[in-house]
Amino acid sequence: MSMNPVLVLLQVQVPGVVEHRVTNMFEPLASPAAAEKNIALLVLAITAAIFVVVGGLIAYTIWRFRRRPGDDERQEPAQVYGSNQIEVAWTVIPILIVFVLIGVSARVIASVSNASPPKSMLQLRIVGHQWWWQVEYPQFGIVTANEIHVPVTGERNVATYIRLESMDVAHSFWVPQLAGKTDLIPNRVNYTWIDPHEPGVYVGNCAEYCGTQHARMLLRVVAQSRDDFGRWAAAQQQPVFENAQVAQGKAVFESLACVNCHVVKGTPAQGKFGPDLTHLMSRQTLAAGVPTNTPDHLREWVDDPQKIKPGVLMPSLKLTNPELDQVVSYLESLN
Q: Which of 151, 123, 134 is CA-nearest to residue 231?
């Protein structure tokens, strides 16, 4: 059976694409992240200066007024009270620093939030669940999970605008090299945008504690050239390929409770609670980035999700080995 190549941990098998495994906010590769890096450096510079000044004064005081041989331990050192100049200085200076930081932060937040969308704009809707990401492309009729494909900025000034919602509890969308944290709040819609400057796979995660598996609620942004993104979108729009070799596995899958939670377009599986599985094997990972998407990991995941991700809402159906083999074979055909 032929299937799409999948990601191995340290190498992404996508032509011309590099995985940015260490997500470093000080190496921004998108406009929002670059703006946030600049303000972060300003804050670090100011606080470092405060640390040096305060630490230096403390060190000087310790050295200058240390006990010397011959000092009378019963005599209290000279005390100084009521210096108006010092009182004004350590009141006014911190206030000015606070106002500078507030003003700069507000300016950056406003510039990122109020940026005018370019003419060439990709729209996404991302919904946070415990503990995975639902990703929708309204312009293309595509629904996927945990993996976001977007075009790089390039000469056409392409940007991706994202509508953020939550299905259950508070989550937070964060891809450090592309944009800052934006919360997903139940019954509220927030927005963010990204414009990756370089092709690659950018690893992000939920940045708001959302339950037991919060730390394993990962996501990947796959930035591609416009042509590569177009080919990916076209492939995702294709219906499921009917493979006679896995017909028995398909029948077993459709007889299980899986169809109540998952969607496989063109089949009776039309659930709304779990990830869309129509093109499952085109994704690089399973279970929101926990294991790589390989047949062995897929089998282990279907057999006992709690073993890989304790607390996850997907139950174990206690399939027999023949049933498990048939279901996994069918899922492997969903390219």
A: 151
Which residues, other chains included, contact 265 with Cβ-Cβ below 8 Å and sequence gap of 6+? 239, 240, 276, 278
Give the residue among 222, 153, 225, 165 at the shortest CA–CA distance from 189. Answer: 165
28 occurs within a structural domain: yes
Closest CA to 22 of 203, 199, 205, 292: 203
Q: What pLDDT digit, counting tens, does each position of 309-333 carry?
A: 999 989 989 999 999 999 999 999 9
CB atoms within 10 A of CB 4: 13
Q: Which of 179, 7, 14 is nearest to 109 (CA)?
A: 179
- Mark whether 185 and 256 lie in a shared domain: no
Asked if residue 239 belongs to a domain, the reply is: no
Q: Structural domain tally of the chain? A: 2
Is 5 a member of any domain? no
pLDDT value at 240 more than 60: yes
In one-letter notation, the amino acid at residue 277 is L
Task: Give the range of the structural domain holding residue 253, as residue numbers without chain letter.
Answer: 244-332
* Whether residues 166 and 119 fall in one domain: yes
* 257 and 112, same domain (yes or no): no
Per-residue burial over 128-158, b if 16 or more Cβ lie within 10 Å, else e, is bbbbbbbbbbeeeebbbbbbbbbbbbeeeeb
Pairing of strands 218-224, 121-129: unpaired
CATH of the domain at 272: 2.60.40.420
Q: How many CB atoms lie within 10 A of CB 67?
A: 8
pLDDT category of residue 9 using cuts at 50, 70 and 90: very low
In a domain, 78, yes or no: no
Query: Do residue 31 and residue 158 come from a single domain?
Result: yes
Q: How many CA atoms within 13 Å lie on the side-chain side of 211?
A: 16
